[in-house]
Batch of 2 targets.
Target 1
Amino acid sequence: MEFAKKGMRVELNRRKFMAGATAMSLVPSVGRAATAPPTLEAKPGRVRLITAEFGDYPETEIWGFGGGVPGPMIRARQGDVLQRRLVNNLPQPTSVHWHGLRVPNAMDGVPGMTQDAVAQGGEFLYELPLKDAGTYWYHSHNQSTEQVARGLYGVLIVDEEQPPEVDHDVTIVLDDWRLSKKAQITDDFGAMHDWTHAGRMGNYIHAHLAPQISTVEQNQRLRLRFVNVATDRIMSVSLNGVAGKIVARDGMPLETLETPEVMVFGPAERADLIVDVTAAVGETVQLVIHERDTGYLLEEIEVTGQHAKTPRGPVPRLPGNPIERLTDLKAARSVPLNMEGGAMGGLRQGKYKGRVMSPQELVREGQIWTFNGEVGLPEAPLITAQRGETIRIPMQNNTVFPHAMHLHGTHFQEVLPDGTFGPLKDTILMDARETREIAFVADNPGDWLLHCHMLSHQAAGMKTWLRVT
Ligand code: C2O
Ligand code: CU
């Protein structure tokens, strides 16, 4: 925890916003008329990850899209067809998953399921009709415990036809790096202790702001888009010096706006906020990360003037996306998912590659988490749904760890204890020993993963799949 302790104490000198080597480049969106699809090149690179205020550290060798971290921000308009030609110049095969987008199955980027992994030197053309506006992200879906930990991810923003008026639209990418004393990513990616516990935790938590805004004014309106790209770490963050609402979760506009207090983001979870700067001139807007009982300052933005005498007034709802929300569960089919395994979980056995194994044998295979008694991707889908069918999945977490359950291909809603439905989500953070139920209309044909987005858990067995016919 060296960097975390050293780097984040509030009393450290005030951060200045450095235009570092990690600055994002904007790639223009591509409409239907594009001739040569722009490339998205996966390749090694070097970035200044640890900023100068923490001391004199060398640049970090990463793998990134475009050779940077995060990869290029992709920004397009709702209704467009986004094209990217993935070119793989990594020493490993790779693929791109467009997290949270409701894409055609063949574009989902899951090797062995929707495409072959793209070999070194190879390419793959992704073509994505952008049905929904919102904040999404893309990341490698091959050997992702390693590839995402090395930096293979980026933000994808789909703009509404008429976005709400704001003075600054800022993306805040939360990441967690495990770095050596020389600021290099440690290559202990398959460490069994990580896989059987809470996953690969880093020692350097970093918030990347894009654009790298350094000042704001009182009563300016900000849209803040949070994305937790960490492989395994749950991020609890709060803001000082602003007031406003959470207007979207996992890309999808909320019907009932929420007030941001401490916001908890499991890996892959996102939220959009619209807030007004309340801090006075000379004060700062602060982003605080909470670890146990302590808050650490992650970023700070100076308030250098007064934009207006008063705030703008109520925060508007975002225009809705063309996705059906649940109305009832009358005709729904229920398929339970029982989660077991990991350290201290009392797992007695698990079926892996067709054979029932003891926990000791499973650990030897590097596979230790089960869904309904099976470790890893089962041969048969958890569910075969008719297109249009409503599916409910009561998920029981019988482990002593939290899990961030992610469904590909469509958003779901939580079935709340009072029978109402929660907001549309693509990832849901379940606490240890918790039971939560999700439901959705299976309207996107194809084979779709359902897995824990703590990538260490996924790699160690927490995955299954659904077929929509
Ligand atoms: Cu964000 Cu299966 O992934
Ligand atoms: Cu998990």
Target 2
Amino acid sequence: MMTMYELISKKKHGAELSAEEINWFVAGYVSGSIPDYQASAWLMAVCFSSLSDRETADLTMAMARSGDMQKPGLDGFCADKHSTGGVGDKTTLITAPIVAACGVYVPKMSGRGLGHTGGTIDKLESIPGFNTSLSYDDFISVVKKAGFAVAGQTGTLVPADKKLYALRNATATVDSIPLICSSIMSKKLATGADGIVLDVKTGDGAFMKTEEDAEKLAEAMVRVGRLAGRKCSAVLTDMNKPLGKAVGNSLEVIEAIEALKGNAPPDLLEVSLTLAAEMLSLAGKGTHEECLAMAESTLKSGKALECLKYMIELQGGNNRVTEDYSLFMQPKRSKEVFADKDGFISEISCEHTGMISLKLGAGRKTKESEIDPSAGIVFDRTVGDKVKKGDRIAVLYTSSDCDLEEIAEEFGKVITVSSEKPVLNKNIIKIIKGY
Ligand code: URA
């Protein structure tokens, strides 16, 4: 008979567990027969001893099968994307309608904000009336009509990740590559997409701080996707500064709408189009370059904006927000921030930006906190821009009763102005193809 004590001890000594042992652990933890303290000890052993590729794949599949395995049942290719989490990352709201407008279905299950990073579900809920808790049938019906839909995960999807994620969050066992890989890929595999594009963020605002770790995570996820018979690729993208100019919920939705009208900041445009091109390429629409051109012309044609408007309407939202931004809840207070010297913006600390946005009310301080949809930051300038003392560099917004003066003071430390023009990071670091 297997015991959890044995499994912990084996992993502590770096031994490889069999598929049977991994399945037994996942089933036992979900059913409650394995207690949190033993599961935590095993997770910590994994953090130190890691998992082999085979063990990672077995853990992912065991987690994916712990709940419903969805089959969208659509008459065409289903593409999905997933970001490992960033600041100002509103690419789903741009990429998904572009891909849908090119004739590829995007049934997108998204999450809420985590730590200093934002979540697509919180962003969409800033649209008056928008419903993110659709039944599975309604979700698929929106996908059939608009080409894409975005909803929160249902409770019956990957219960193993729900339990293990909460436990990892409380036991300092989040930042392990095989554990992040199995957490993300189990959810992607359970939603039944034919092709998966992973946006793996790297930099100070990402969970993976170095390119080396981001690449290891990307390769692990692509390998698991391929083993599970899915087309999969990963795009390594920079997260050393916020993506685009807006951080916050309605502020990011507005920036995404503007992007679909042809007014995207260059970094946001490049990342969104690259992800769209990879999704289209997985769907067999052509080479990456051909698909990039297709994504670009679809965006220019206005069809992707029409797609977004239709999706908002089908999910109960007021789609006139795309023309009239005053329909979003308006922030009660704002505070302008100015450059305190001449020079070039050499750094915008991404993690701090996320934390400031959270303090303004755009994120949750505790699991139960209410989000302020109007809160956040809009940057006037970005890394590499020349500024003069007294130029406005950002505006902070909030409707909460936070101490705006104190936050603005703290925000001064987010932006560094130097005399030298900085060398700019590439937005797209690498594409790893697994098909
Ligand atoms: N996102 C997830 O869904 N899981 C992780 O472990 C990390 C980021």
